[in-house]
Design goal:
Length: about 500
């Protein structure tokens, strides 16, 4: 049985109480949070139901420093500070240090490291005595957080204490110091195989014919999700392959098989499936994943141009891309928001460049010289931007907005956190279509706050694939060039 712990209860003041002693449940645990966990999910401390959550003072100092930065990290830091402020404001310094009980049975503490620690106790040497490790470098934030976890463990009288961090190096140091550690697992997908958006079936020619004659029920042996596709091989003819989509009750033929967008025609089965979802106005949220050169960006851009400029189904296109720079943030760059974002928007510019070339050739036009083409692309984008038809934005400028009558393309969505993915989708107004693009492979993620199983792209794919308003397709085939395809497979 653990020692009783005092903490502050929000309704205590009504009864004249300020502190109460509660006999701690032996199943309660202590969780010490690293800064990167709060940056990943600003409300993470609310997910440790029934346990004590400690935020070291060093973490607050790091958040205070980061909140003024540009880009995703600065935004997440500000969100974390706001979330903590809403829970802590008005509770008093003493109560915060001793613990505040939140509505979901989480007891939140702000803790200080033990400055008196001169050595770090290690694991047993097997003869009953403990090894002593030298004190780690002072004034290093990770080490102060580790010292804080050690102090909490020593004073908890047997209660299990864990350090929660997305920093692998810190978790290793914690294990060396006999502090159990773990990654933040709440919003990680629990499967090794990401939903692809399609399945493979084998059916008779007669059954396939039924699909194209009003629809047919899928085989009982397979459970399909809304807007999932089926690549169907004929049992009677090896060369006969058909595509169908599940509408929630039946397999039905594709509507846009013979369509093009801004002169672009899908090149393979996977692109045809993605094209179907992108063109369909009844599917307001589409995710497309794939490696470099698979065609995800040019497909989305072509459909957006077709829907906005040709068919006038939407009023504008909003291009959004997270800024995760290797060097300085965009705040260091000169110019307006659009000018600062220009280096990050190369994929959109390249897509429009290629599409304008396709469009000219489709209508018998002549290709311009290289310099003229570049100038024309810049002028094309600038003209529509000034008219409010093109917008180029970062997540920093999305808070509080409602985006209506627009197609929103979020490129490199594997770089965003689940919190930011939710922020983006909750901006959706009437008559809007959101498209998330990206490659969730670990080697394509530069944001240290996420990985292949905890980024916002895979999070929304797995959490929303059972809704009829969403659709997803994974593109595996590289169409950019022979060299790009070989590089994608071999390197």
């Amino acid at each position: 049985m653990t020692t009783p712990r005092p903490y502050y209860r929000p309704d205590a003041e009504k009864s004249g109480e300020r502190e109460i002693n509660v006999v701690a449940d032996s199943r309660q645990k202590n969780y010490v949070l690293d800064t990167n966990v709060l940056l990943h999910d600003p409300g993470c401390f609310l997910n440790f139901r029934g346990n004590h959550v400690y935020i070291p003072i060093t973490v607050l100092e790091e958040l205070d420093h980061l909140k003024s930065k540009e880009g995703l990290v600065g935004y997440q830091a500000r969100e974390a500070v706001r979330t903590l402020h809403r829970r802590i404001d008005g509770r008093g310094r003493q109560c915060v240090s001793e613990g505040i009980e939140l509505s979901n049975e989480v007891i939140l503490h702000v803790a200080f490291p033990d400055a008196s620690v001169r050595s770090i106790p290690g694991r047993s040497n097997g003869q009953g005595s403990m090894r002593t490790l030298p004190l780690l470098e002072a004034q290093k934030n990770d080490n102060e957080i580790l010292a804080c976890a050690m102090k909490i463990k020593e004073q908890s009288h047997g209660t299990e204490t864990f350090l929660v961090s997305k920093d692998v190096c810190l978790r290793i140091k914690a294990e060396v110091c006999d502090i159990p550690s773990q990654d933040y697992e709440t919003d990680k997908i629990k499967t090794d195989e990401l939903y692809t958006g399609y399945c493979h079936l084998t059916m008779s020619d007669k059954s396939i014919a039924k699909i194209f004659d009003g629809g047919a029920k899928p085989p009982k042996s397979i459970e399909m999700l809304p807007n999932q596709f089926a690549i169907i091989s004929s049992r009677d003819n090896d060369k006969h392959i058909a595509l169908a989509k599940y509408d929630g009750s039946h397999l039905v033929p594709l509507k846009y098989t013979n369509h093009s967008a801004w002169g672009l025609v899908p090149k393979n089965l996977e692109q045809k499936m993605a094209f179907e979802l992108l063109m369909d106005p009844s599917v307001p949220f589409v995710t497309v994943t794939g490696g470099a050169g698979s065609g995800k960006t040019i497909l989305a851009t072509a459909v957006a141009l077709e829907k906005v400029l040709e068919q006038r189904e939407y009023r504008k296109i909003v291009f959004v891309r997270p800024t995760v720079p290797v060097g300085n943030d965009i705040g260091y760059l000169p110019g307006s928001e659009e000018e600062k974002l220009r280096p990050w928007m190369g994929s959109f510019y390249d897509a429009i460049d290629n599409l304008m070339t396709i469009d000219k050739e489709s209508y018998g036009g002549k290709r311009s010289k290289k310099g003229e083409e570049s100038s024309q692309i810049e002028q094309f984008i600038e003209d529509f931007r000034k008219r409010g038809i093109f917008e180029i934005k970062t997540f920093t400028y999305m808070r509080g907005r409602t985006i209506s009558d627009a197609i929103v393309i979020v490129d490199e969505a594997q770089e965003i956190t689940p919190h930011l993915a939710k922020l983006m989708l909750t901006r959706a107004g009437e008559r809007s279509k959101f498209i998330f693009l990206g490659d969730p492979s670990d080697n394509q993620i530069d944001n240290v706050l996420v990985d292949s199983k905890s980024n916002g792209l895979v999070y929304v794919i797995e959490r929303m694939n059972h809704h009829a308003v969403t659709g997803h397709v994974t593109l595996r085939q590289v169409e950019r060039s022979l060299l790009a395809g070989i590089a994608e497979k071999s390197l």
